[in-house]
Specification:
Non-ribosomal Peptide Synthetase Peptidyl Carrier Protein, Chain A
């Protein structure tokens, strides 16, 4: 699992209030119960992490954690593991 996939899984776990182990990397967001409000909240978290405007459309164009992570890594570069003392509130920085 890539760092970006882990970040997305943890973010969805927090937003959907379910254990991260129940979130699939390959199943679509819709199949996992992600509704439009949660999708908006996820884009807000992504905006905070990336420091750029994130389109809700990206969740539809890349409808799973794995697909979205690959898109984000291609567009913004892969996440690097940061020392614990320099991590952002959500645990990982871009």
């Amino acid at each position: 699992m890539s760092m970006r996939e882990q970040w997305l899984r943890n973010a969805l776990s927090e937003l959907m209030e379910i254990d991260a182990s129940r979130i699939s990397l390959t199943q679509s967001f819709a199949e996992q119960g992600l509704d439009s409000l949660t999708g908006l909240r996820l884009t807000r978290k992504l905006q905070d992490m990336l420091g750029v405007e994130v389109e809700l459309e990206w969740l539809f164009d890349h409808p799973s954690i794995r697909e979205l992570a690959q898109f984000l890594d291609a567009r913004f570069g892969e996440l690097d593991a940061a020392p614990a003392s320099s991590r952002a509130d959500d645990g990982i920085r871009a």
